[in-house]
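Wait, mind explaining this?

_____
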Amino acid sequence: MKLKNVLIVVKDIERSRKFYHDLFGLETVLDNDGNMILTEGLALQEEKFWKSFLGREIISENNASELYFEESDIEGFVEKLEKYCPDVKYVNRLMTHSWGQKVIRFYDPDGNLIEVGTPV
């Protein structure tokens, strides 16, 4: 058995596709009526479908999981983030952990937590 994808719930799939494409370079692999798979195994599903499958409300910014990306030019990424998403909601701005890794955490437009860090 192997893990195929990680799925996140989004309100506007086209806005999210553009966000993950423009900021992280992810390309669309499959686009199927409110369900989309991007490169690197990220799957997007529109909230209305997820709600109907689960029969439960979606809790934005629940901080129960995060998408983790690595970027060696983290300062360049922060500049790109600030230009592309001037209203981004930060969990923490660029910081350095005690072991030397630089990281930044923020929410995507739907409240999914993202961490970008330098390679360890």
The helical segments are 13-24, 47-54, 74-84.
